[in-house]
Amino acid sequence: MQTKKSFEVLCDFDGTITNEDIGFSIIQTFAGPGWLEIEEAYQRGEKGSREAMTEIFQLTSVSEKDLQQFVDDNFFIDPYFPAFLDFCRQKEIKVTVVSDGFDFYIERIFAKYKLDLPYFANKLQVVEKRLKADFPYRRSECGQCGTCKLQFAEKIKQKGNSLVYIGDGHSDRCVSQAADILFAKDFLATYCRENGIEFHAFTTFAEILTVLKTITGEEG
Ligand SMILES: [Mg+2]
Ligand SMILES: [Zn+2]
User: Fold this and answer.
1) Which pTM value belongs to this model?
2) May I ask the CATH architecture of the domain 7-19+77-124+134-215?
3) Looking at the CA of 165, which ligand is closest?
4) How distant is the alpha carbon of residue 157 from its chain centre?
5) 17: nearest Cα among 167, 175, 169
6) How far apart, in whole angstroms, are the C-alpha atoms of residue 31 and residue 159?
């Protein structure tokens, strides 16, 4: 008897679940002069995200309370994301958030929208009014990422499950090649087009939900 392949979803956070890249907005708002040069070196691929974030955080100044307020006041989630989660729960499709952003704001957004799902991300603390990053999910094989998303993809593939990946940015590049079904927008969509990686374009989770229903055999 052949067992049916199960789907598992890995999903980016910043700019994918949320309306904007929160990590980037924090940097734009609270980092002093010099951050843009470092950011641009990251965008050009000359620095990995771990190196870039560590350097940029040296230039920040903000209290923990102000940072909390900033996160609470300025960001929201894709309005169809809860419906997408409900569908995945019904179908027993596990959804995990993998982020090269930070636990600090992911937890605040989850709390705000009463979302309860597993996530892996970098750690952010405010120490003496300066942001401090830790990277517990770095991978020695990859010198670039803070949280290297490929390791979570590999675990899913090792189980023999099909990987559904959803993302929008630079930190989704490596993992996008491991996806069985890929949803991409913005930078990631351009990257996939340029590199011949097949993907479903999306702007909201409503479109992802429609495709996923077809793929998972909602037709029975
Ligand atoms: Mg993103
Ligand atoms: Zn990596």
Assistant:
1) 0.94
2) 3-Layer(aba) Sandwich (3.40)
3) 1
4) 19
5) 167
6) 42
Ligand nearest to the CA of 172: 1
- Cα distance between residue 160 and residue 183, in whole Å: 20
**Number of the ligand closest to the Cα of 149:** 2
CA of 139 to the centre of ligand 2 (A): 7
Checking if the pLDDT of 4 tops 90, the result is no
Overall size of the chain counted in residues: 220
pLDDT tens for each residue of 154-189: 999 999 999 999 999 999 998 999 999 999 999 999
21 CA from centroid of ligand 1 (Å):
6
Q: Is the pLDDT of residue 106 over 70?
A: yes
Q: How far apart are CA 101 and CA 12, in angstroms?
A: 9
Contacts of residue 140, Cβ cutoff 8 Å, sequence gap at least 6: none
Question: What is the CA(60)–ligand 2 centre distance, in A?
Answer: 25
Nearest to 201 by CA among 187, 180, 213: 187
pLDDT digits (tens, 9 = 90+) for 129-155: 999 999 999 988 887 889 999 999 999
10 CA to centre of ligand 2 in angstroms: 15
State the sign of the Cα–Cα–Cα–Cα dihedral 12, 119, 104, 37.
Answer: negative
- Per-residue tokens: 190: 């351009």
